[in-house]
Amino acid sequence: MQIGKLPRKRIAALPTPLHELKRLSKELDGPRIFIKRDDLTGLAFGGNKARKLEFILGDAIEKGADTVLTTGALQSNHVRMTAAAATQFGLRAVLFLRGKEPVTYKANLLLDRLLGAQIEFVDTDDREEIVQRVETAAEQLKQEGSNPYVIAGGGSTPVGCTGYYVALTEVLTQVNEMGIHIDHLLLASGGGGTHAGVVLGVTALNFALNVIGISVSQSTDYVVERVCRLAEETACNLGHRLKFLPADIEVHDQYVGPGYAIPTPEGLAAIRLVAQTEGILLDPVYTGKAMAGLIDLIAQQRFQRDETVLFLHTGGTPALFTDETLWNR
Q: 252 forms bridges with which residues in the sheet?
C-alpha cells in the first residue's frame, strides 16, 4: 500500500516502546504479556490519536485549511489532542463538546482551554444534532473567508485509520527485532478507528495474530459492523480492495458496564493492579476496561500458557483526574 504518497505531518514520538509485563503476567498466572505504549506518543499527554492526526492534519494542511472543527464528549481524548496538533501547526481549533459547561474545568477539558481552543458546548445526546452544528459552523466560517476542515469524532475516518495500519508495520518490526512471536493483540474499541486500522494492518501485512477488541461503549454487533466498514474504506483509500466479514472481527462487549465513560469496579481494579505491578497508568474510560477484559479472559483460560498477548495502551490518562473520589473507594 502506497503510504508514502499520502500527506502526513510528523506529530507522534515514534516508535513507541514495546516491552514485556513480567510482573503482571506472573500475578495473573497466565500467558506472556507485552504492552505497546501508545500512551507515550508525546502530544499533550499522548495517546493513540496522535497517529491518526498525522494523516488527518496532513490532509487538512494540504487542502489549505486554516481552521479545524471536531466533536467529542466533554472529556474527549481526541478533542484534546486535536487542539494540541492544530496549535502545533498554527491552525485554529473549534471544539464542539457534548454536554453542559461544567463549573470547574478538569482533566482533558482543562487542557482544551489551556491549549487555546474555542470550545462550544452542545447540551444534547443527539449526535446528528451535533454534526449539524459543526456543519453549520463550518459553512459560516467559509462565508467569513476561512477555510475550515471538519474532523469526524475520534478521527475515525479512512484517513485517520491509516495511522494504525502504519502502527502495525512498526509493531512487526519491533517483534522481529526482539525475536518474539505475538499470538493475540488486545485493545479497547470505541469509535472503531484504531481497531479498524489494526485489523487492516494485520491482514495487509500477513501478520499472523488474532486481534481482540474490548468494547467500551457499544454492542458487539455495532462495533463489528463499524470496524469492517472502516477497514474496507481505509483499504480503498490506499488503493486496494479488501473485504472484511463479521466472522473476521472478535469483539467482547460484556465489559462496558453501565455505559461509555462510566467506570466499572473491574476496570478500576485493573488500573490499580497494573499500576502496582508495573508502574504503568491506565485510564477508566478505555484501557482500564480493556485490561479488565484481558484479566477476565485469562481467568476463563481463553489463552494458552505458552501464548503471548500484546496489549495496546491507547492512552487517555488525563481521565484519571476527572473524579478523584474514584480512588478513595
A: 214
Q: Which residue has the cell 484534546?
A: 80
Separation between Cα atoms, residue 89 and residue 66, nearest integer Å: 9
DSSP code at position 144: T
Q: Which of 173, 201, 174 is nearest to 187 (CA)?
A: 201
Looking at residue 207, its amino acid is F
pLDDT in tens, 189-220: 999 999 999 999 999 999 999 999 999 999 99
Which triple of cell numbers denotes residue 299?
481467568
DSSP track, 200-218: HHHHHTT---EEEEEESSS
Residue with cell 487542502: 63
Task: Please give the distance of CA 240 from its chain centroid, rounded to a whole number.
Answer: 24
Q: Cis (ω within 30 of 0) for the bond into 15?
A: yes
> What contacts 4, CB < 8 A, 6 or more positions away?
none
The CATH code that applies to domain 62-154 is 3.40.50.1100
Quick one: average pLDDT of 6-25?
A: 97
pTM above 0.70, yes or no: yes
End-to-end, the C-alpha distance of the chain in Å comes to 49
As annotated, the residues of the chain forming the CATH 3.40.50.1100 domain(s) are 3-48+157-328, 62-154
The per-residue pLDDT of the chain, averaged, comes to 96
The CA distance from 256 to 263, in Å, is 9
- Residue 315, φ and ψ in degrees, nearest 5: 90, -150
Q: Are 105 and 75 in contact (CB under 8 A)?
A: no
Give the residue numbers annotated as catalytic, written as ranges: 76
Q: Which amino acid is at 18?
A: L
Size of the chain in residues: 329
Condensed to tens digits (0 to 9), the pLDDT of residues 39-88 reads 999 999 999 999 999 999 999 999 999 999 999 999 999 999 999 999 99
Among 216, 261, 256, which Cα is nearest to 107's?
Answer: 261
CATH number of 3-48+157-328: 3.40.50.1100
